[in-house]
Amino acid sequence: MSSFVESLTAEERRQSRRNAYASTWFGCFADLMHESSALIILYLAMLGSSGTLTMLCTSLSGIVSVFLLIPMSSIIDCFGVKRIVLWSCLLGCLSFFVMGLAPFFSYGFGPWVVLFSCFVFFVSKTLWIGCWYPILTDVLLPEERGDFFGLMRFSYHILALVVFFLLGLVMGKNPPFWLMQTCFFVTGILLMGRYVFVSRIRISPHVPARTDIRRAFRISVQNGPLVGFSNYICFVLMAFSSVLPLSLLYLKKGLAFDDNMVQLISTSGIGGSVIAYLLYGWLCRKLGVRNIQLCVHVLFIVLPLALFFLGGVKTGMAIWMTLILFIGNFAYACFCCVFSQEALALARPGNSTMATAFSQTYQMIGIGIGRLFASMMLDNGILSSHWKFFELEFNHYQTLFLLCGLGTMVSLCLVFLLPSVVPKREDYYNP
User: Fold this and answer.
1) Please, is 381 exposed, middle or buried when counting C-beta atoms within 10 Å of its C-beta (0-12, 13-18, 19+)?
2) Around Cβ 28, how many Cβ atoms within 10 Å?
3) Which has the minimum average pLDDT: 71-80, 202-211, 288-297?
């Protein structure tokens, strides 16, 4: 734990938490537009994008973070978190303005402009993620983390839920390009509010220094519980990370739902996240981190398998998909809260920037590989578009859901790497 946070009064920590909350309220629309909302998926469909390119856009977050998170930790230590947050917000704002201009390019080139915009945004997000945890290390005591992460994510998800739900109501079956472009331009402008409030958070004075990245990386690698936790996160997300965005694509292209219906159903996922973040602090106290992790893993197995078997259901599919997206995002939100809490708990004092970057890199490796695999499987003829098992018919979307379910089932073997499951270890090595 940082010694700086101990020097703050309760009121100073409270004010810093308020500014941290406010920074997420302005930045949440950009993040959730890429993570949970169907807006970008629908926008790509309007531009004539293939399913492969659409899933590739969702995988860029992991791919970019894999290569940049650890090097960024050195840059952050050199220039300071507040300056890097400013760069991040400017870059993110630019990415949304470029995305909004995609329809002005020749037909067929627009989706690639969106892909480039997503790449630029995820570079900016990598800068932001690298700063966020060091900021929180300076303003949160260990006993404050669970409630903070739950309330923070609850507040910005409920805000995004209301906005995206209202947007789904006014979009109509075939929304005009100008409406989508306006959403992107406004989102880019709001992103600058993130820096306004981060600049007001009191953190330890920045001392420009060139970080010994090799030494910091070695400290993280030698932290056995951190490495085990990171490996578990990587393999679980490799199996599950594509399920939620693939579900939205399945609604649009596999089940041929109207655009406004897809957007409305996607808000149920945000609703699941809202409820999870509201209850997380209470769940953490009642069940403990270990039991939450085990329950979430079980849901990560059940949900993709449910999507696989539901393909033959002809009636009430909208209700089933709404329920699955709600539960899926509820489970994923709990998973993210646990990740944030454990990443801070496993970071050695003085090495928090590298330690959190290390665990987040593994997280993004899982997301990147999982979603890249799904994007390569779609529309390339690798999977049969339709196949039968006895009297049951399946398509290539359902095949991917089956593979995801089997992957999370296999990764259950890694649960003993979790420090919450096996907190005391007796390591032995005799070469």
Assistant:
1) exposed
2) 25
3) 202-211
The two structure tokens encoding residue 168: 């789904």
Give burial (CB, 10 Å; 0-12/13-18/19+) of 316: exposed
What are 130's two structure tokens?
């690298």
3-state DSSP call for residue 265?
helix
Report which DSSP code applies to 105.
S
Write the pLDDT tens digit of every residue in 232-289. 999 999 999 888 888 888 887 777 777 778 878 888 887 888 888 888 888 888 888 8
Q: Which of 410, 422, 384, 364 is nearest to 69 (CA)?
A: 364
- What are the two backbone dihedrals, phi and then psi, of residue 175, each rounded to the nearest 5 degrees? -65, 145
Of residues 103, 350, 321, 337, the one with CA closest to residue 219: 350
For residue 144, give the nearest of 276, 2, 294, 296 by alpha carbon. 2
Cα-Cα end-to-end distance for the chain:
35
- Per-residue pLDDT at 4 exceeds 80: no
Cα separation, 355 vs 211, whole angstroms: 13
Rounded to 5 degrees, φ, ψ at 384 are -65, 135
d(CA 16, CA 27): 17
Confirm if 77 and 211 have CB atoms less than 8 A apart: yes
Average pLDDT, the chain: 82
Tokens of 84: 């890097």
Q: What phi and psi, each to the nearest 5 degrees, are found at residue 125? A: -70, -35
Domain 3-197+213-417: assigned CATH number = 1.20.1250.20
pLDDT at 2: 44
Does residue 273 contact residue 36 with C-beta atoms inside 8 Å?
Answer: yes
The answer to whether 16 touches 202, Cβ cutoff 8 Å, is yes
On the question of pLDDT at 414 being above 70, the answer is yes
pTM of the model: 0.72
Report the distance separating Cα 340 and Cα 227, nearest Å: 15
Q: Are 343 and 356 in contact (CB under 8 A)?
A: yes
Q: Hey, CA dihedral for 422, 332, 133, 157, is it positive or negative?
A: negative
| SS3 of residue 124 by DSSP | helix
